[in-house]
Amino acid sequence: MMEILNLYAGIGGNRKLWGKEHKVTAVENNPDIAEIYKKIFPKDEVIIEDAHEFLLKNFKKFDFIWSSPPCQTHSSFRKNICVAFRGTKPKYPDMKLYEEILFLQGHAKCKWVVENVKPYYKFLIEPSAIIDRHLFWSNFKIKESKIKREYWIRHSQIKQLQEMHGFNLSKFKIKDKRQILRNCVLPKLGKHILRSANGN
After folding, report:
1. How would you classify residue 166: left for phi > 0, otherwise alpha for psi between -120 and 50, otherwise beta?
2. Tens digit of pLDDT per residue, the chain (200 long)?
3. Using CB atoms within 10 A of its CB, is residue 29 exposed (0-12), middle (13-18) or buried (19+)?
4. Is domain 3-146+188-197 in CATH 3.40.50.150, yes or no?
5. Domain spans of the chain?
6. Whole-structure pTM value
7. Backbone angle region of 9, left / alpha / beta, with phi > 0 → left and psi within -120 to 50 → alpha
């Protein structure tokens, strides 16, 4: 049994196949999304707070930390499609991503992983692994994997995304269901990373 910190938890795509043997603390700053997470994983402790600040104050309390900072400002899709062709305003990349990597590299004694998408720029810190559209920085060896999405995520609709991730959000009244599902890490990939952290 491990004490796991799941930061920027969303509805828990990465956590879905971790099983029930671990004690999981999930941090999500959106109360509506946190409420969905609570209903899907009722045994987890769910904290509605800023994940970046929570990490700084609590990183010593856990055996394994998973962090998925917001990826939109790093995304090659946002820059190359949304900004270039759809009129989306450019934004500074959110540097919390690299702050957390450097912080965990320098201070964490536990196993940890930071996940994000492929960026539009050359990596500022070389990732430990690249699987499908995800980059991972970690202090353990992530085994190679051929796990891939079943659908092309940019064009997938809610029904396809629910099938791919194994979530049914039809009973929840919440906006942006498609984006919430798109933000999920594939459950099989979440399981693969946790198994790698355990040396399996």
Report:
1. left
2. 999 999 999 999 999 999 999 999 999 999 999 999 999 999 999 999 999 999 999 999 999 999 999 877 657 554 444 544 466 677 788 899 999 999 999 999 999 999 998 888 898 999 999 998 899 999 999 999 988 776 555 567 888 888 888 999 999 989 889 889 988 999 999 999 999 999 87
3. middle
4. yes
5. 3-146+188-197
6. 0.91
7. alpha
